[in-house]
Every structure is written in structure tokens, then in C-alpha cells.
Write a structure and sequence with these properties.
The protein has 317 residues and is of the alpha/beta class. The chain has three domains: 105 residues, Glutaredoxin, CATH 3.40.30; 72 residues, Serine Threonine Protein Phosphatase 5, Tetratricopeptide repeat; 115 residues. It contains 14 helices and five strands. Strands 1-3-2-4-5 form a five-stranded mixed β-sheet, with helices on both faces.
Length: 317
């Protein structure tokens, strides 16, 4: 439990809520019900062993914060996650009701263990130990099979380390899900390209061999697709997309729109991950001005993806 003011609100609430849910307790010294629920909140925080952080805000002293959250009576509790309020309640509720409220939103113990394993995996990967990272991600999935972020990273690492059969097996549940996530479709498309390069004789061709056939027949889409797949596997993403665009501009529906689907898969694989703490620069919950303005520059990789999204849109219209 920590007391928070406008001065430390950004650090203790907004920033913290991006990795740990924060429960705000708006109270006042004169409030009788506040004296009832306050100790209960502290007890439950201890019971939940780090699953959330309790923050107390004196609504008399911190009227700007109380106004920003629209507090009309106290005690009022507001749950913050990812920098935003997600739910709340008023009054001195009993312990059972409080725990029901928290359990509706907080990650379970298994999910927290999975998060810890996933963070360990990223650290191992950054340290240059992909095999240990794979083991940690598998551990994450054993705790939380529905952790899509861990499954995506796990399959991607398996592909990068050439464990293709394991990658296909780990990807299968995600491809069977309804609705199917685009990022998993992208990994499936990339696996298809790798399997093509490994099994088809054209997988070893030089670019000139493809270009000779294409020069003789601009609508030789099968050759163009084969070339694009070879370029994908070789990490020449823009050249692959340029080849796929040639197919799309000539025949958008060829082979059940396979060229478009492959192009979209590349865009998905190239798209940088969104930062966890993305929010309006200099603003906290309720639009409170806490920091100076920040200039946000688009990442070069994001610029590349945006550019090719526009090219695809123009080709389809």
C-alpha cells in the first residue's frame, strides 16, 4: 500500500499499471466507511501476494485527482490497468464481494507465473541464448496455454532455429482457433514458404532463372510466387513484396488471393510491436497534464510497413 499525490501519480499509478494492476482507494480522514474498507483492502492486498498494488488517495488533499476520476462519494475504488481505469465500485463492500471484483480482472497465479517465464525468455533471448529462451517459453505455455503472445514468440523462435516440425505443431492450435489471429496466419504463411524452398527444386534457383521465365511471360504467376517465397526465406522482404505486387496488380484473385495473403503476412511479420505504455504524450488518466510534450517519431521499420500498406491499397483499388 502506498499514499499517492498528484506529484507521484504518473510513476506510482500510470506507469505501474502497465505491468501490475493498481487499485485506487479514494478516501478521507473524516469518512466512517473509509475506516471500514481501508484495513480490508490492505489485508486483501497481502492475501493476493503481488497480483495488484493498492494505492490510497486522500480526496480532500488531492482534489484535482478526485475531479479527474469523477469521484462523487467516498470510499470509491477504481482499478487501473494499462494506464486506464477499467472498473470500480463505491462503498464499504464485504471481503467476498471485493475478491469477486478483483478476480474478474486480475491475472491468476498461473498467468502471473507465465508472465514471469515470458519475461525470463525475453532476457535469455537478449543475452543470445535462444535455446534457453525456447525452453522458458514452453514453460510459459505449460502454465498458460492460452497465452497468445508467448505462443507467437515460441513458434517464431522455433522457426528461426530451424525446428520446423515443432513450430508447426505449436502453431496448429492457433490456426485452428476461431477467429484466427492475423499474426499466426503470417507465421503459417512463412512456414509454407520455408517448406516450399526446402522441397521444390526452385528453392535453389538464382534470381536470373526466375527472371528469364518471367520475362517470357509476365503472367507467369506461379514463377513470381516461387521467387517471392525464395526472397522471403532469404530475408529480402521488400523484394518479395515487390514481386507479389506484380501478381496483385495483374490478377487480384489469382490462386484464391494467395499473393495478397502472402503480402499481408510479410507486413504482419515486419510490423514492430506496439510499446506497452503507449498513451498520449504528457497526459495521464482524465487528461491531467503531468509531463512536458514529447515528440513521437515513427520508427523506420514502421515507415517501411506503412509505405507498403499504401502500395497494396493502391494495387487493390
Amino acid at each position: 500500500m502506498i499514499n499517492v499525490t498528484i506529484e507521484n501519480f504518473e510513476t506510482e499509478v500510470i506507469a505501474t499499471s502497465h505491468h501490475t494492476p493498481v487499485l485506487l482507494d479514494f478516501w478521507a480522514p473524516w469518512c466512517g466507511p473509509c475506516k471500514v474498507i481501508g484495513p480490508l483492502l490492505e489485508k486483501v492486498e497481502l492475501d493476493y501476494e503481488g497480483r495488484f498494488k493498492l494505492v490510497k488517495i486522500d480526496s480532500d488533499q488531492e482534489q484535482q485527482l478526485a475531479k479527474a476520476f469523477g469521484i462523487r462519494s467516498i470510499p470509491t475504488c477504481v482499478l487501473m490497468m494499462d494506464g486506464k481505469p477499467v472498473d470500480g465500485f463505491m462503498g464499504a463492500v464485504p471481503e467476498g464481494q471485493l475478491k469477486t471484483f478483483l478476480d474478474k480482472h486480475l491475472p491468476s497465479a498461473d498467468e502471473l507465473a507465465a508472465q514471469d517465464s515470458a519475461e525470463d525468455a525475453q532476457a535469455l533471448l537478449a543475452a543470445g541464448d535462444p535455446q534457453a529462451a525456447i525452453h522458458k517459453l514452453l514453460e510459459t505455455l505449460s502454465h498458460d496455454p492460452g497465452n497468445d503472445d508467448a505462443r507467437f514468440d515460441y513458434v517464431k523462435l522455433l522457426i528461426e532455429t530451424n525446428a520446423l516440425e515443432d513450430a508447426a505443431a505449436a502453431l496448429a492450435p492457433a490456426l485452428a482457433a476461431i477467429p484466427r489471429q492475423l499474426r499466426f496466419e503470417a507465421l503459417g504463411n512463412f512456414l509454407d514458404a520455408i517448406n516450399f524452398v526446402m522441397s521444390d527444386e526452385r528453392g535453389t534457383w538464382e534470381p536470373a532463372q526466375f527472371d528469364a521465365l518471367i520475362a517470357a511471360n509476365k503472367r507467369d504467376f506461379d514463377t513470381r510466387l516461387a521467387k517471392a517465397r525464395v526472397l522471403m526465406v532469404g530475408g529480402m522482404w521488400t523484394a518479395a513484396m515487390d514481386e507479389l505486387l506484380e501478381i496483385i496488380m495483374r490478377d487480384k484473385t489469382w490462386n484464391k488471393e494467395l499473393a495478397r495473403k502472402t503480402f499481408v503476412a510479410i507486413l504482419e511479420l515486419l510490423t514492430p510491436p506496439k510499446p506497452k505504455a503507449a498513451q498520449d504524450a504528457g497526459k495521464a488518466a482524465g487528461g491531467i497534464e503531468l509531463l512536458g510534450k514529447a515528440v513521437v517519431n515513427e520508427d523506420p521499420q514502421a515507415q517501411l510497413v506503412s509505405s507498403y500498406r499504401r502500395k497494396l491499397s493502391m494495387a487493390l483499388n
